[in-house]
Amino acid sequence: MHSLPHDHTGARIKRLRVERHLTQRALSDLSQIPYSTLTKTEQGTLPASPHLIGAVARALRVEVATVTGQPYVTELRADELDVLISPIREALDVYDLGPDPEITPRPGQLLRDDAEQLLVAVRAGEIKQTASQLPGLIVEATTAAHAAGSTEGWLLLASYYRTAYDVSSKLGYSDLATLALARMEWAAQRASSGVVGGMYRYMRALTYLRSGQYRTGDRLINMGLGILEQAEAGRERDVLTGQLHLGAAVMAGRAKDRAAADGHLDEADRLAAVTGDASDVHWLSFGPTNVAVHRVSVLAELDEYGQAAEIGRVVAMPKDWPASRRSHHFAELARAQMWDGDLDDAFKNLLRARKAAPQQARYHQTVRETYDGLEAAKRQLPDSFLSYGSWLGA
User: What's the longest Cα–Cα distance across the chain?
Assistant: First the structure.
């Protein structure tokens, strides 16, 4: 029998609980998590669900990242990704200093091409490449935006800030992701862009989703929808509106509000029928496929694991769909299958998540929690499973 890693999520919950002099019964009452679920999670015989992690983090008054152990510093150091974080943070810090006299920005079209390439690279799962190029480009675009003072310059800078959010959130640096979003909003205000403002609120709502603060996240979604109503009607606005509804659906699912989740999914489905595949609009991957994979995520959040697994198996993803989205879907499907008792297929989808976007999967919380759940549930594990655990750093 293979044991869970010493510092799995359940073990961290126990350590944090003991540090606060709480009994398991007391933490169960504070978090509204069933006593038996909490005890089995602490023991490592039951994997930690996102709902449980968020509820326990709120009850213990700590960040979700403290419970999950993010960022995964040892693995980041091994992949030489930890050294790329400080330069990104430093580049975000010079946002209001005006033009740097030692920098001569390249023509705007070249900066826009680079911004577009970074967005493509992130969605291809090329996190290290993006993180290494990003700081210098942010600093260059910052100088260009201040020097020109134009809408186009501020929108370009907002795009680079968005990529900083993408990278930092995928690597588990929630504080840096929040800072990047604050900079994105700052640039969007100077560009007077309702669409970017709506997108900012969608991404900010996701940070509250991850931290288990669903009510605040829902308020941000509603604010974003209100802002988008002021934007010019058309496909771009429909795509952003649809994406906000998808975010709201997952939020409602994790809050166990089935009616609200279904309502948001239905509205997103209606908009997707109008827009069709809109992966090219702000690289949000909105469209019928994205609605389908979000439906799987929502059903899993509602503990409807059998239905989530059934729908997830037949989702047809276009060959050119972003690798990051494919990897995320495979991770969500694996989680649903693991909870549904289909352990072999769950591991197969963990392998698919890794193949689609290895750098993303290595630092994906759902991948790690699902691996831990499979390891706790199964007695006979193939060598490939153990190899996968070594790759994760488990």
Answer: 64
- pTM recorded for the entire structure: 0.90
| DSSP assignment letter at 287 | S
Tokens of 67: 């419970």
Torsion, Cα of 73, 78, 84, 89 (10° steps): 0
Summarised one tens digit per residue, pLDDT across range 75-110 is 999 999 999 999 999 999 999 999 999 999 999 999
How many domains is the chain partitioned into structurally? 4
What is the Cα–Cα distance from 246 to 261, expressed in whole angstroms?
9
Which residues are bridge partners to 278 per DSSP?
A: 286
Backbone torsions φ then ψ of 6, nearest 5 degrees: -55, -35
258-289: b or e for each residue (b if 16 or more CB lie within 10 Å)? Answer: eebbbebbebbbebbeebebbbebbbbbbbeb
Query: Do 120 and 42 belong together in one domain?
Result: no
* Same domain assignment for residues 11 and 80: no
277 torsion bin: left (phi>0), alpha (psi -120 to 50), beta (else): beta
Does 226 lie in the same domain as 157?
no
> Which pairs count as long-range contacts for 311-316, CB under 8 Å and 24+ apart, including other chains?
312/336, 312/337, 315/289, 316/289
- pLDDT tens profile 293-313: 999 999 999 999 999 999 999
Domain that holds residue 234: 197-202+213-303
